[in-house]
Amino acid sequence: MNGLQIVNIHRSFGEISALAGITFDVVLGEIVAVLGPSGCGKSTLLAVIAGLEVPDRGEMLWDGKTLTEIPTYRRGFGLMFQDFALFPHKNVFQNVAFGLQMVKMTEPEIKKRVGETLQLVGLPGFEKRDVNTLSGGEGQRVALARSLAPYPRLLMLDEPLGSLDRNLRERLVLDLKSILQMSDQTALYVTHDQEEAFAIADRVVVMNAGQVEQFDIPERIYRQPASIFVARFLGLTNLIQGNVRQHGDTRIVDTAIGEWPFDGDYTGEVTVLIRPDTVHLNADSQCQLSGIMSELSFRGATCRIIINVNGVPFTFELPSNMDLPREGENIQLCFDPEEAIQLFPKSN
Amino acid sequence: MAAGVDRDSVEVNSKFFTSSYKKYAPHALWLAPLAFLGLFYFYPMGSILEISFSRIEGSQAAPFIQALASERVRRVLGFTFFQASLSTALTLLVGLPGAYLLARYDFRGKSLLRALTGIAFVLPTLVVAAAFNAMLGPRGWVNVGLMELFDLSQPPIQFINTFSAILIAHVFYNTTIVLRMVGDYWSHIDPRMGQAAQVLGANRLQTLLRVILPLLMPVIITAALLVFIFNFTSFGVILVLGGPRFATLEVEIFYQTVSLFNLPLAATLSILQLACTLILTILYTRLSAKLTRPLSLRPRKYTQRKLTSWRSKLLAALLVIMLLGMLTAPLIALAARSFTRLDPEPGQHAFFASGLTLDFYKELTTNRRGSLFYVSPLTAIAVSTGYAAATVFLALALGLPAAWALARNSNSKFNRFIDPIIMLPLGTSAVTLGLGFIVAFNRPPLDLRASILLIPLAHTLVALPFVVRSLTPSLRSIRPRLRQAAQVMGASPMQVFRHIDLPMVGRALLVAATFAFTISLGEFGATALIARPEYPTIPIMIYRFISQPGALNYGQALALSTILMAATAAGMLAIERFRIADVGEF
Question: Are strands A154-158 and A77-80 parallel, antiparallel or unpaired?
Answer without folding.
Answer: parallel
